[in-house]
Amino acid sequence: MLRLRVFVFVICAVSFLNSEAQNSRFIHRVFTNVSVTEEVLFSSGDNYLGVHKDLYFDFYEPSNDTMELRPLVIEVFGGAFVEGNRQWADMLAYGDSLASYGYTVAAIDYRLGFNPLSGGSIIRAAYRACQDVNAAIRFFKANYAEYRIDTTQIFLLGNSAGTIASLLSVYLEEDERPEETYNNGLLQDDLGCIHCTGDYQNHTNDVAGIVAQWGGLDDLNYIDDYNDTPVCFIHGTGDSTVPCDSGFAYNNIEFLSLPYLYGSKSLSMKLDSLETWHELHLFENASHCFYLENLISMIPDSFSMCLNITVDFLAQINNYVENPVNISRVDKDSFTIFPNPANNILFIETNDDLFTYKLLSSDGRILISDTKHSKATIPVNNYTPGIYLIEIRTEKGAFIEKVLIN
Hints:
Layout: E1 2-6, E2 33-46, E3 52-62, E4 70-76, H1 89-100, E5 104-108, H2 119-142, H3 144-147, E6 149-159, H4 161-171, E7 209-213, E8 231-236, E9 246-248, E10 260-262, H5 264-273, E11 278-283, E12 292-294, E13 297-298, H6 300-317, E14 335-338, E15 345-350, E16 355-361, E17 366-372, E18 375-379, E19 386-394, E20 397-405
Parallel strand pairs: 4-5, 4-6, 6-7, 7-8, 8-11
Antiparallel strand pairs: 1-2, 2-3, 3-5, 9-10, 12-13, 14-15, 15-18, 16-17, 16-19, 19-20
Helix pairs in contact: 2-4
């Protein structure tokens, strides 16, 4: 099914809205509308209960895009390997947002389910998910012409369990398969090789980079010196679900039998020792998956930070970005937004000659949008009291400011 989604997550913008141009795309938002093709089959396999499961993806792309081959970001949702789907809020937000920058995006399924009282069972669940991520990568390499994908520019973007599966896809080799994935002579079937689900086994699962949000690995030895895939780690230091440094998963729930994990900080140290390029973004005291308020809504400013990091990281390794080091942000101190809290009128003043502003609700709806010289006056007396956002854009970049309307 093909539908047109009008882009609404504009609160996450990082740069001035520009016309589509080779030196602007992927750094600035150059597309307003995003087309989404839903429920495309890419693989299948038996889940935890032995039930055969078809796996689908939703494909996001800029509307009326004329670029012949585009980079692809494969999104892998979170949910502790027991829940989650490609329609969760962050999958939708990243899909819409990255497509507005000019990327194609595929939000994929993977097989779910494990026994929470068995550490071996969750290792098998992570391995099944890794197989499914590999199947998705191979699918897009084999069908690149249909989806207009540059196969050298495929990226992974994971959330929690989705990050674990993505990291395994990048680092796990066939001869490193955990023993839990083999037949144990009882009721545990052999899960097969890392490329034994899906089709197109003649294609590789190599990717250009990975954005790893609050995830980890159970074994640092998976990371070898010959794998130089760039990684961008995002993690909260207050995460008790997947420890930022190292520790047992869900360490706040005593009865669970879950594996010991090495989180973003430990993985970063390992990559440091191998001199592999990566980024580590730690958020002090932030909890697990800190940009989600619930499964159907985002915390706008937290998601904005993660999107900004993601867009910048992708630009560093995107072959189509001419000057990635020149990605800019507006100096927040160059603008004055007052009063805050506001009752009737909100004022914006700046030394810059021309700027565009938007007043947005906390869920991303555009309430007012205008372009002004030096200053703007915004009437707010008709709005329901609460938290709103002001997005400021100039030719130098952009920033988001939270405001309270009484």
